[in-house]
């Protein structure tokens, strides 16, 4: 069981690192600046639509990603056996990171395509919310109510 716990934690940590490497790559690509940067900056209607959509995406995805996981943890994961709980914990952690990836990607797209600061603000909100999802063995054990003494 200890190996399964370490495997789940390692997978979630690599996912989290990948989540944080993605904006770094987007920033590098955006700052190198090809002809696509600022492509829609002059289109006021498209900029307004994209900004509004990104703001709504952040307003929906950030609370849902945080609250949904807590809800699933108490209603579903706590009621199953440990191996199944580890599988569900891993699955729902990935869903939570996916929900935070959507507004982050949309925010950077709006920032670079429309040169709108609202886009980068939304991306940073999603990145900040991901800090509440920081994976670790201690956190997994606490959320799944696993004590090391019980394992031995």
From TrEMBL:
TM spans (from-to): 12-33, 53-74, 95-114, 120-138
Keywords: Membrane, Transmembrane, Transmembrane helix
Protein origin, superkingdom: Bacteria
Record protein name field: Transmembrane protein
Organism field: Bacteroides oleiciplenus YIT 12058
């Amino acid at each position: 069981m200890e190996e399964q716990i370490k495997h789940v934690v390692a997978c979630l940590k690599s996912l989290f690192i990948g989540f944080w490497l993605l904006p770094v790559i987007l920033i590098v690509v955006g700052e190198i600046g090809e002809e696509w940067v600022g492509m829609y900056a002059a289109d006021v209607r498209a900029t307004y639509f994209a900004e509004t959509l990104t703001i709504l995406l952040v307003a929906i995805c950030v609370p849902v990603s945080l609250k949904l996981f807590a809800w699933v943890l108490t209603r579903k994961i706590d009621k199953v056996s440990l191996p199944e709980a580890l599988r569900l914990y891993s699955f729902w952690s990935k869903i939570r990171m996916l929900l935070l990836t959507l507004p982050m990607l949309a925010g950077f797209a709006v920032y670079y395509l429309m040169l709108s600061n609202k886009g980068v603000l939304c991306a940073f909100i999603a990145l900040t919310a991901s800090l509440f999802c920081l994976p670790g063995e201690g956190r997994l054990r606490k959320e799944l109510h696993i004590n090391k003494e019980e394992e031995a």
